[in-house]
Specification:
This protein has helices at 3-18, 50-77, 86-95, and strands at 26-28, 37-39, 46-48, 115-119, 125-128, 146-150. It is of the alpha+beta class. The protein folds into 2 domains: 3-95, Zincin-like, CATH 3.30.2010.10; 115-150. The strands form 2 sheets. A 3-stranded mixed beta sheet has the order 1-3-2.
């Protein structure tokens, strides 16, 4: 599918689900990997991840399009278009869009746990990806002092 076919698809979904035409530009952006799409507040254009279409199919991509169109139509109407706004959540439910898209395989960029902040009193452990100064924190359970411990590398069986 190319950008002009996506443009027609977005226009069709906008009319069918919202009853209002989409009058701006919709394009694919191959750099989008951790998000399904984007709505731009200044230009009112929408970008969709082609990877979502390839991996998760037409049905999931249409939910992403509806999500971005919720931002679009609410913003242009001067109503709450952000994820936390009740108007946005209500419209998402009404049109059958999802708040989050499915994760693409290999898209998660998580660092391994390298350190733990461990409470000296109760033993509660807080995993950390970066080195942290234990004097700046207290245990969330008992308010005790913490110590920094390096994570042990996992042993292969």
């Amino acid at each position: 599918m190319n950008d002009s076919e996506l443009q027609q698809w977005v226009e069709k979904v906008s009319l069918a689900a919202f009853g209002v035409p989409f009058r701006h530009k919709a394009t694919f952006n191959g750099r989008l990997r951790t998000t399904g799409g984007r709505y731009f507040l200044k230009s009112h254009n929408i970008e969709i991840s082609p990877h979502q279409l390839a991996v998760n199919g037409v049905e999931e991509t249409e939910k992403i399009i509806k999500h971005e169109l919720c931002h679009y139509h609410l913003h242009l109407a001067g109503r709450g278009y952000k994820h936390a706004d009740p108007d946005f959540k209500r419209l998402l439910k009404q049109v059958g869009a999802t708040l989050y898209c499915k994760t693409l395989p290999g898209a998660k960029r998580s660092l391994p746990v390298k350190y733990y902040l461990v409470c000296r009193d109760c033993g509660m452990s807080y995993p950390r990806k970066r080195r942290a100064d234990p004097r700046r924190y207290a245990c969330g359970k008992c308010r005790g002092k913490l110590k920094l411990v390096e994570a042990q590398p996992e042993q292969e069986a």
